[in-house]
Amino acid sequence: FQPCPEHRDFRASQCSAFDSVPYESTLYTWQPHYTDDVTHPHGACVLVCKGRPRLDEDSNDANPEAGGGNGREYVMVVAKLAEKAHDGTRCRPGSLDMCIDGQCRRIGCDLRIDSIKQVDECGVCGGDGSSCSRPLYHWALTSSSLCSATCGGGYKMSRPVCKNRVTGDEVEEELCNDSQQPKPSVVECNTQNCPPKWFAEEWGPCTASCGGGTRIREVYCMEENNNTRIKVDDIKCGGHKPWFQDACNQMDCPTWYTTKWSGCSVSCGEGLQSRTVECRDSKHQLSMSCPPASKPSSTKTCSTGIHCPFSMEGSEELLPGLYHTQPLVQPYPPPPVPQKLIGEQNLPTEPRWVGYAYRLFGNGEIIA
């Protein structure tokens, strides 16, 4: 075998070949989907791809890993597009192992099938590391950390440290050659799909601001893998499906409150009665949310059933509601009539004011 020149990933090319083929009546942009779970029904040599729905306005360089372009979010799908990947397809990234007739076969550094040869630290395929001089201090990678996720795709990392080759102890980094320091190793792990579980979206708005309403939300059964959620049939999710409908704003609506009517404003005739009208909420706090159309009246007319008399002297009028009387005769006795001499003419008496009684009715009419 001869190593292949640099070119696009072979598995990615096989996935993208289905970009123009509708899957469940929808066109997708496909990329390889890997799993390191050997018990997974989609083995390393089955062509399993993950796809993002294609839209006409999608840009050609939109990143499928982002879940959508142009600010949109899409549900990714994972599908088996072929029973077997083409012969020569790598079983997984970074490995020489390849698929042959649907089976993952081990490939050694000598590029032979089922070979166990590996490159030693001297860069020799199948060597034992004795073909090169080795300094006392050397770089080594620490053991991999725990995977950051138990399923759905996580990462584990190894960092470079400087070690004493004889004792195996970790020493100061200055003792190792900086130019030979390897980069930290970050590899994917636990890429198998997580068990499906329920995902609920945010609640929608309540149908009423008070007095009892309802709100709804969408609830899906989803698989999550590599931070991508895939919608599946509800039957795959265990447990009780979360409620998609809920009661909301059960508190009483603000309402109008009134005090008792006051007494009539007059002691006779017609007047007014008043009362206080306030809008209060369910906590009896003042509110501005009561419907104005249903606001009760704060005043009303009232009648005592008593006609109001009044007096007028000159141009002075007595106000309605105040009971006034004026004597019909002068209250003081008249002066005595002087004796007349025989033959004396009658002189006119001195003029004087004589009062009258008046009555004012509710319609404003004055009757003497």
UniProtKB/TrEMBL annotation:
Alphabetically ordered keywords of this record: Disulfide bond, Repeat, Secreted, Signal
Top-level taxon of the source organism: Eukaryota
UniProt-listed GO biological process terms: extracellular matrix organization; proteolysis
ADAMTS/ADAMTS-like cysteine-rich domain span: 79-132
PROSITE patterns per record: TSP1
Keyword Secreted: yes
Pfam families: ADAMTS_CR_3, TSP1_ADAMTS
GO CC entries: extracellular matrix; extracellular region
MF GO annotations: metalloendopeptidase activity
InterPro entries attached to this UniProt entry: ADAMTS/ADAMTS-like (IPR013273), ADAMTS_ADAMTS-like (IPR050439), ADAMTS_CR_3 (IPR045371), TSP1_rpt (IPR000884), TSP1_rpt_sf (IPR036383)
Major location (coarse): secreted
SUPFAM superfamilies: TSP-1 type 1 repeat
Name of the protein in question: ADAMTS/ADAMTS-like cysteine-rich domain-containing protein
Source organism (scientific name): Acanthoscelides obtectus (Bean weevil)
Lineage: Eukaryota, Metazoa, Ecdysozoa, Arthropoda, Hexapoda
